[in-house]
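New to this. Explain the following:
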Amino acid sequence: MQALAKGNYLARFAEAGADVLRAQELRWRAFRAARRPGAAGGRDADEFDRLCRHMLVEERQTGRLVAAARLLPLTSGCEIGRSYSARHYDLSALAAWPGRMVEMGRFCLDPACRDPDVIRILWGAVTRLVEAEGAGLLFGCTSFRGTDAGPYRDAFAMLGKHHRAPERWLPKVKAPRVVRFDRGFGDEIGGGPGRGPGHPAGDAGRAPMRCLPPLLKSYLAMGGWVGDHAVVDDDLGTLHVFTAVEISRIPPARARALRALAG
């Protein structure tokens, strides 16, 4: 895929190991640095990095890396077990998916970057890849910061009520610690301190959409759906929500907007 230039930014695939190292360093700042105040810089790396294609978004004038994601094309649902998401979810239902798929993971922004154009150009580049692959499903794990589900109580309830996956594709529980969207937050499966239903939800109680991660908001705007539980990831210090969008079901106006970004 050719690089995609829009305004102040350039989206491209990693071309060498040095590019992947830069992405891993950005991921460390985005996912891990806040949990290690005062620690020297590091890298977020795992065995999936060698399997995936790495997307970078850079400032055109300075070359500074401001966003990254990794993408894993799969020929059909029979390969779903190769995905990172399959570590956390029983995705046996999606093994019946008949066409090509792309998993998007480790989507992150430079914590110092607040320009919405960064997310737009990254989605334009992802759209190019999805169309080039002929993929019918884009999926991955979207992450809520922290492992305490209490602040996200109303957001999770909203997701479970309005955006739950079709029954035929619904992921099942696999991880040792999960939070079900249809249960009280004292009912965390697998132990842990959990907070009861009386715990104040703060901003989430007043506006559930406000606390959704930007990636998840993008999926939902495309008509995407989620699983029925969040996975507690103590390693990253996040709550993962399985998220997917069926390409053929993206609203026409949204599909046109994505193609315009990719053009």
